[in-house]
Fold each of these.
Amino acid sequence: MVISSKDRARRDALVSAIEDARTAYYQHDEPTISDAEYDMLFKELVDLEVAHPELVTADSPTQSVGGEASETFGEFTHPTKMWSLDNVFDDAELDAWLARVGNHNFLCELKIDGLAINAVYRNGVLETLATRGSGAVGENVMSNIEYMTCVPQKLTAIKGQAFPELLEVRGEVYFSLADFDQINLEVTATGRTAFANPRNAAAGTLRQRMDNRVVAVAEAKSASSREKKQEELDRAAKALGRLGLIVHGIGAHDGLDITAQSHAYDLLKKWGLPTSDRVKVVDSAKAVHDYIEYFGLHRHELEHDIDGVVIKVDDLAEQDELGFTARAPRWAIAFKYPPTVVRTKLVDIGVQVGRTGRVTPRAQVEPVLVAGSTVTFATLHNGFEVSRKGVRIGDMIFLRKAGDVIPEILGPVVESRDGSEREFVMPTNCPECGSVLAPEKEDDKDLRCPNARTCPAQLRGRLEHLGSRAVLDIEGLGEKAARALLEDNVIEDEGDLFSLTSEDLSKSDFFVKGAKRELGKNAEVLLEQLELAKSKPLWRVISALSIRHVGPPTAQAIARAFPNLTDLQTASQDEIASVEGIGQVIAASIIEWFAEPWHRNIVTKWQRAGVRMQDEAVDSGPQTLSGITVVVTGTLDDFSREGAAEAITSRGGKSASSVSKNTDFVVVGPGAGSKAAKAEELGRPILDEAGFKVLLEDGPEAALKHLGLA
Ligand SMILES: [Zn+2]
């Protein structure tokens, strides 16, 4: 859309009117306009920005974390200019740049979605911290430094080397995705618009004058005004404390003897400045492409958002030779990835009933292209989550989709509401069977349909689960087959499954073909597969029962301790709880399950139909992982999540779901999130899939050797 100069002028007028009002409120505690007038100006600015997202600048009053202040800071002229980089958006444009610069060693690094800053150190002591601003002149945000933990105020001395008298360090302040989510929740809780991206959140956080906020609290003219300003001060301080920093360059550097960009990074690191472990120096155009491709695939596994990769000629003399254009260095380029956050409309919120009766709201959004695929649905977890995120049906929202992760709603654009939006109300009755929904325990956030036995949604869910690859692996028993079996009254519940005959199946249109109603191929496959399933290992049968908290890994532990289902059925809660990795909660859930007559009836029917309910004595193979706890996160090529857990437990190891200091190994595949970061934080050994295979085959020592740690 074309932005008219009229729109631009109006934007500028709104920004200045809003900033004047804020200054009056903050610095003089004397509002010049009413709250309603202020809100109208603010809403108009938001509407303008929604219509023309290109108009949104990081310093827009809509992009402020504290909610109110975004006052001006003193100007700071950078000792040397902070250049911006030219961007390329695809391989062809990148190749054109690579051809222009010729052969070099290239330093590749991630382009963090944050705010560029310049930290000026004199003899190792931080003198000024400034935003990039125009590149020549930024804002001096040094007065906020005491609230920030990410920027060292003193550099660590290197033995035998004096600090340069003047050193400019360039970097990016940013929020981790976890902190970004937290900030957005806090911002929307105060009735404000969520930040569209971590960069705006970082800018909104850094660009608030904490000194003015402190004065505003002290000079507040009423107790309630003081309280409100104190709250805002606290919120702003907390947000500043959460900012992280990654440094990625130097400007002026008196008396430093360095020859390469990567050399500068080594020095910065030794001085105690946070550099990225993901920086890589490569020597070919192909390796540059590989780096870009790798992080294009794995960007959603990082603890922070990136919007691309920066490539720099590593050698400083070669950089000098290439020089600068009027606006950017010729020796560096930013490769931009497609965005992962978009704005769209929340059309409706429906609810889904799961296998265990859990009722989850699901957002339907106006179809929107993000991260390479069209998104129409996003998850909302539970009713509590809907109100926590503050979204209403009809809202404009920010939506994030990264890789294979389920799309997620960040928050609403509150100011673009026109009054037609409505609150989502969690239904009181099950949409499928009409039962009254209730939390299982008083403080549960999830609502459940209590009708486990005949609720169609739950029955369907259990059948699908039972047929899934991780459980009994019955080809032909998917969502559609499950629906047909139930809706055409072929079976009453899963108890009837293994005694199904071709005659039974011929009652359902889904399983017959033609006018003669001959049995279809799908029916044959299903019957064949059901027969095969009857002699599968006991743990698969136990998982097929849909006992709460008993997934495949737990079922394996149980089947090892109770290789006969009758033994499990007659065991006491304490006996079950004493099994390694089980505990009282799971044991109680098992006891509860078997106490239900219709559950026992399923077992009896299966037994009668020939389902094997015990394991033959098996040689469990070498116990290479005895006493070893392993956490697997992300996706692996050759193992499903359950398969990986099985591989660990069958070798005597423990497959855990969260990383702690007691974790021996963390296996990280694509899609890994916070667990990988946690492993790094705790210094636990991290294995890739190849390393995991070494661990399984040859045990922990070989795996450490694989990592070069032993
Ligand atoms: Zn129901």
Amino acid sequence: MNAEKEKIIVDAMASFIGHTVKILPDDVGAKLRELSEKETDPAAMAVYETMFRNLRLAEELDRPLCQDTGVVQFWVRCGSGFPMMNEMERLLTEAVLKATRETPLRPNCVETFSDVNTGNNVGKGVPVIWWDIVPDRDDCEIYTYYAGGGCSLPGKAEVFMPGAGYKAIIPFVLDRVTEYGLNACPPLLIGVGVGNSVETAAMNSKKALMRSVDSVSDDPKAAEMEKLLEEGVNAIGLGPQGFGGSSSVLGVNIVNTPRHPATLGVAVNFGCWAHRRGAIVFDRDLGFRSTTHSGFKG
Ligand code: SF4
């Protein structure tokens, strides 16, 4: 009986990975269309056209929409009453092995120091799995993300003295955009994390990338800063793929948690135009649905 349940999860997750490396989430696709319709710069318009052709061909030819299928990362928000919690790490790893063979995914797991590519996207600590245990729930929400070498893997974090003030976040983010934003294939989704240390800020910045591109922080001050940063990054004028243009961002999302009186941790992570994040929810009977990809049927 358990073998049957395990097969449902492995098959569903391998299929979801296959779908989400080929098809953008609904919100990202809609935002790209919105930005392209507003664009007036001829070079930028041509880049958007190429992006939409790329998306169409990925779907028609059943291939990943970018050659860099990234490091597979999961953020698992698991209800404490979900019956398969115990098995999830093993099953998610099996799903990555299956998706690597069947989709296929490019092998992107290189053992550090020996520099050997494991060839199957699995190694010690890979796929990356972050857990949140959610009390009083019996479902399991899983965010999938394919962190590419140009976009969200080269994030940056720093801990400021509190005297620097929250205004220090603005130049920190803008400097990162001018430093390596081009490598991240704009328009960018900018995930900013604020917290008490490097690691809490970094985790918050990753969670920020899982919010939808048009979402607004429920903290009014953070929401104000999201708007300011969006205006500031657009003013830099990178445009799609760095060819110049009126928009350089899909969105700016800030996730903030309290800081220590003596520290202000800040981190930034970029998502690229091919922002392949997905979310799937399993109920306790292992029925499932995606909240990001309306076309995913399993
Ligand atoms: S930044 Fe994104 S679109 Fe560009 S190569 Fe990396 S994964 Fe692909």
